[in-house]
Specification:
single chain; 459 residues; mainly alpha; Fumarase C, Chain B, domain 1; Fumarase C, Chain A, domain 2; Ribonucleotide Reductase Protein R1, domain 1; two-stranded parallel sheet; 22 helices; 6 strands; 63% helix; elongated
Length: 459
């Protein structure tokens, strides 16, 4: 049976394949083979660059191009050949080594030094670097651009809605007003912090042999500074060098990176739930798409499905990432293989996050703020002005100010007239009474607009 989206077990490769298409160039089995082949070739070239020190034959520009072409021309036929070799070896990295040796066998010069392919390497010397490069590419090419897109949209929304008042809800009950722009600004600030953190997290790699001591390297060439060569090689690939490891790179950086992504996801889950609620309150309307159906039986429905889909997939991503955060930094003694099968799911955890980000972006694109409903809700809740009234009463030394206002408003239907009559009876300066009467549920927004301004100036 040919694999199609209809036959995929995972929705990542099925229902949501369009959202995760870009990840196939990084986390598919084909791509994983290619990343590891690249590491093998680059290490082989590094060894050859040391030909004088190692007393081996050097190569010229033509052989270098030959090696580069093995990688640039890597195709599905090559990948199948590696997998067929793996069926015999029952070892994936050794299969890549044998494949590369077979590829260079047509070059007389390279064939003579073919035993320096995979020289002194343990499997994780290749795998850990491949994963580091995959994660680096995923972060720079996919995750950070999507995060930046979300950040830009939230910034635009917070500016657009900076001065639009809204009834806040604490414990789900009417509370001191804010502006929609300021509430979005909170999320903008939170996710921007994680964006900055993610960019700075060091992605590490190691290449130091079976237990991290260069034992094999030194047995062949005891006078070579392999520690320095290891650093040169790792940093030449654009990642940071981890000089102190067992057989495996301990994956601490993956835990750090996933901690950051997981927190970003959690903040977006919070955002999804809030906006789901705002849609339910009619603070926002969703743009009507004529041919869409909201319910199989209720024709009137326009459901906030994009925010729900985003929440669910971000939760799945976090579930996998949180497991990896606690699992990957742990290995029995110098090596066990329990990390290997888990690492193969890095792309899966990121894929669920990507689906969540795209769903959120789609949901935001359908929103229209409902100012008339926002104003109506505020005008229905004059009791929220009990806060400024009792606070001003306290300023002028009126005893039991809180208790007096509480008696007036708690559990009662309050309107402008009741509030103004109460204010008129207060023993405070006339100008203060007039100032209090100018406060309405629509303009009692404190410094919300200024707070947004301060954030805009910083960014």
């Amino acid at each position: 049976m040919k694999l199609t989206s209809l036959h995929a077990i995972s929705p990542i490769d099925g229902r949501y394949q369009k959202s995760t298409e870009s990840l196939k160039n990084i986390f598919s089995e084909f791509s994983f083979l290619k990343y590891r082949l690249n590491v093998e070739i680059q290490w082989f070239k590094k060894i050859i660059s040391l030909s004088k020190k190692l007393n081996i034959k050097s190569i010229n520009k033509e052989e270098n191009i030959f090696l580069d072409n093995i990688l640039s021309n890597f195709n599905e036929k090559d990948a199948i050949l590696i997998k067929n070799i793996e069926k015999k070896t029952n070892h994936d990295v050794k299969a890549i080594e044998y494949f590369l040796k077979e590829k260079i066998s047509t070059s007389k010069v390279l064939f003579l030094i073919s035993e320096f392919i995979h020289f002194s390497c343990t499997s994780d010397d290749i795998n850990n670097i491949a994963y580091a490069l995959m994660i680096k590419d995923a972060r720079e090419k996919i995750i950070l651009p999507l995060w930046y897109q979300i950040i830009c949209i939230l910034k635009s929304m917070m500016c657009k809605y900076q001065n639009i008042p809204m009834l806040s809800l604490t414990h789900g009950q009417p509370a001191t007003p804010s502006t929609m722009g300021k509430e979005i600004a909170i999320f903008y600030y939170r996710i921007q912090r994680q964006y900055k953190k993610l960019k700075k997290i060091e992605i590490l790699g190691k290449i130091n042999g079976t237990t991290g001591n260069y034992n094999a390297h030194l047995s062949a060439y005891p006078l070579i500074d392999w520690h320095k060569i290891s650093e040169e090689f790792i940093t030449s690939l654009g990642i940071m060098w981890n000089p102190y490891t067992t057989q495996i790179e301990p994956h601490d950086y993956i835990a750090e990176l996933f901690n950051c992504i997981s927190l970003f996801n959690t903040i977006l889950i919070n955002f999804n739930r809030d906006f789901w609620g705002y849609i339910s309150l009619d603070y926002f309307k969703q743009k009507l798409v004529e041919e869409e159906v909201g319910s199989s039986i209720m024709p009137h429905k326009i459901n906030p499905i994009d925010f729900e889909k985003s929440e669910g997939n971000l939760g799945l991503s976090n579930a996998l990432m949180n497991y990896m955060i606690h699992k990957l930094p742990i290995s029995r003694w110098q090596r066990d293989l329990s990390d290997s099968t888990v690492l193969r799911n890095i792309g899966v955890s990121i894929a669920y996050a990507i689906i969540g980000y795209n769903s959120l972006l789609l949901g935001l694109s359908k929103l229209e703020i409902n100012q008339s409903e926002l104003s109506r809700k505020l005008n229905e809740n004059w009791s929220i002005l009990s806060e400024p009234i009792q606070t001003v009463m306290r300023r002028y030394g009126i005893k039991n100010a809180y208790e007096k206002v509480k008696k007036l408003v708690r559990g009662k239907k309050i309107n402008r007239t009741i509030i103004h009559n109460f204010i008129n009876e207060l023993n405070i300066p006339i100008e203060e009474r007039e100032r209090l009467k100018c406060i309405t549920p629509l303009n009692y927004i404190g410094g919300a607009s200024q707070i947004v301004n301060s954030l805009i100036r910083k960014n």
